[in-house]
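Recall the central idea of this unit: under ordinary conditions, the amino acid sequence of a chain determines the structure it adopts. In this exercise we apply that idea directly, starting from the sequence alone.
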Amino acid sequence: ILSSDFLIRHIDNCFHLWHQYPWSKDIDANTFQKYILPYTTNNCYWEQAFEFFSKKYTLLRDTVRDKPYEEIGVLISNDIDKKFLQEWNIFRGKYKGLLPTTFKNMASAQIGTCLEENIYKIAALRMNGIPAVLNTHPGWGNADSPHFWTEIVGDRLIGKLYDNTQRPYYTERDVLITNMFWMNAYNPLVKEDIMPFISIQYCRTVPKVYRLNYELMKNSLALSTEEEIPDFFKNPTIEDITDKYIVCKDIEVPLWNNHPKKHIYLCSYDTDKWVPVSWSRSEGKRAFFEKMGVNMLYLPAYYDNGTIFPAGEVFILSSNGELKILSSQDKKTEPSATFYTKTPYRIRTALQAANTVGIRFYICNRKDLSDSLLVHTVDETPFYVDSFNISDNKKYHYLICDFKNVNSIGYPFGIGEIKIYDKNGNLITGEWSGTKGVPNYTLDKVADEDRVSFYQPNQHEKKQQIIFEIKDPRKIRKVEFYPRSDDNRIVTGELYELFYWDKKWISLGQQYSKDNKLTFHNIPQNILFRIHNHTRGKEHRPFTYEEGKQVWW
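Accordingly, the structure predicted from this sequence is:
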């Protein structure tokens, strides 16, 4: 419910700042009406927003009056990025009831998901005479959940469209889309040959990009059909701007002849479900889709009673616009296939593992550690776990893990787990002490039997080491060390199930892992797979098996 006083005051304020600030002289009436005048973004506004943001950025405006509005917009945007805390996991997990919230709460708490931050950011920009709009995609191509970001209208054009291929990060020039990369950091210790048959997934892929306008779009699906449609397309303001960001192709998609709906959707894969990212009208056994992101996995489907049903074979759209159909119809089989992870080996996991290079392990007996003997140095990036044996037959009272020589890049140094075994393979018990951990990542995480939880030391302390004390000295035969990770590798002794896609997920059988890998025989070729861990964890991604390697989508 809007009051006339609020609307009149808002309109007057917008026109006033349009004529007041020097940087506004290049903003035309159409841009002003579309991207400054709207009082709300995503149905969220605050009547005091104008006064709040005007006061907040008074000093900045006074010091940059002669700069173009695009530069001023970047300064405001960067200021918000530094102060607004994006904590997606908080709101999608334990505290789901905290969202949606009011704009006033966003401004007060400065915390939320990418959606809340960008609603806040767009208001800050518009209230300072800078045209801005909310962009989104319904789902990543190789990860879970949607994403939102702010576009300063008139900002620099993207010099190179994003082609959804994996590339390492070296400089800011490598980032072609805001927040596209897992981590804007480069570490020379992260190498492609960390483990045979494993590739690093450097960045996320995007199937479609949409702009969330204030005005209604004439070609909106929501305004042109009475048929039941997915929630995302019920918004009549969305505008397809994929070709502004992504290398894309117009494609003809083959369909089965038994779909009962007028509209067909192309879907990308999210957690346990297919998510519609584009729509078209069915034309018998085919449908035409415009501006589809290349190097992507898609499923044609129809929507009925809130559920997605396949309408054709799943396929990969290649960079040249060809459709690689994934189907078991050809009956060819793979004699033997070996799998090492149930999700991609992502750059964030590789960086966290590389952060352990430089750790030194010592053994000793004196309480002052003066008789310390170096027994192992982490010289290479471990693949989820590192272990070493100690050939010394003496009994020892202490094991020391020293990380003062670690050079962390991208993420703070962290330890997931350390396990110490005797000559009979039994786990040795003891007490850990040393450098205190930061809040929520305390020293007890080193031995809590959870490979996902981790210890992160307080880097301000002089000594950077932790000490394992064995009450009764023992012979130490082996030490296992787990870097901080997502724990998505195949783990020895855990139960897994392999599925393939043929109109639905069909099981190829369960298997307990041996030697941290799975091996299946006589499985279909040219098909989509996924692996589910029945012992622990919930993350998984679909993949193809090509030339002896898991290729992730």
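Residues 356-483 form one domain.
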